[in-house]
Amino acid sequence: MRRADRLFAIVQALRGRRLTTAKQLADRLQVSERTIYRDIQDLSLTGVPIVGEAGLGYSLKKGFDVPPLMFEYDELEALIIGARMVGAWGGTSLADSAERAIEKIAAVVPASRRTALEITQVYAPNFHVDPVVGAHFELLRLAVRERRFSRMDYRSIENKDTSRCVRPLALHFWGERWTLAAWCEMRKDFRAFRLDRMRNLAVTDDHFALESGKTFADYLRKMERESPRMTT
Predict the structure, then answer these.
(1) Helix H segments across the chain?
(2) Residue 21's Cα: distance from chain center in Å?
(3) What is the mean pLDDT of residues 82-94?
(4) Which of 61, 94, 206, 222 could cross-link to 49 by cystine, CB 3.0-4.6 Å?
(5) What is d(CA 130, CA 123) in angstroms, rounded to the nearest whole number?
(6) What gap in Å lies between CA 206 and CA 216, rounded to an integer?
(7) Tell me: the pLDDT tens digits for 96-120?
(8) What are the CA-CA distances from residue 35 to residues 19, 46, 66, 112, 232 (Å)?
């Protein structure tokens, strides 16, 4: 959990109870009591009216509340459009997460802003999206995040079939198709693989370490220099 999220969670916890101890907060947020003491002190210094003391417990002064999120209309519309695009062109897991995120935003924005969530007339139809690509996207999103080797059968643009073992680095959407940026163990070089050309994709249990010359930053530098050669 990011520190900003933890500070917000502490405030929310103190709102919901009359008196909360550092141990209760530490157990809830899975951090040490020392971390909670430091966070409480920092929140107090920023003006959050926390009362109490170490060993006894903490609470918020009556009447204090976290102000509602004040998104501008354009910001809310950007979130809605982004969520619809994720729902249409990403995997099912991200689509569900995007929908839940919008529900949370709708629950906390002021009523005067909530209409922006309902009147946005920009859509991303998903009836043309290959469900196999969505399944590949879900697997590779996990592989990128956890740095796990992946294997696949791949058909190149020249219709040549090969079996590949790759280090997934990033996923890119180009408006028509998803591609995977990866280090190819067979070619000993970076390659971009189209998700719709993959077959028998499997994410292994083996993790790869970041190595100089094989990172995503290295990939971007090479792509800038040799972009015509990066297509597989």
Answers:
(1) 3-16, 22-29, 33-45, 73-89, 92-108, 111-114, 116-119, 131-146, 216-226
(2) 32
(3) 79
(4) 61
(5) 18
(6) 19
(7) 888 888 888 777 777 777 777 777 7
(8) 18, 17, 22, 38, 49
pLDDT, tens digit, 9 for 90 and up, residues 135-187: 899 999 999 999 999 999 999 989 999 999 999 999 998 877 899 999 999 99
Residue 204 has pLDDT above 90, yes or no: yes
CB-based contacts of 22, cutoff 8 Å, min separation 6: 33, 36, 37, 40, 54, 55, 57, 58
Write down how long the chain is. Answer: 232
- DSSP-derived 3-state class of residue 147: coil
Dihedral of the alpha carbons of 132, 138, 142, 147, in degrees to the nearest 10 = 40
CA distance 209 to 182: 13
Query: What percent of the chain has a predicted confidence (pLDDT) above 90?
Result: 41
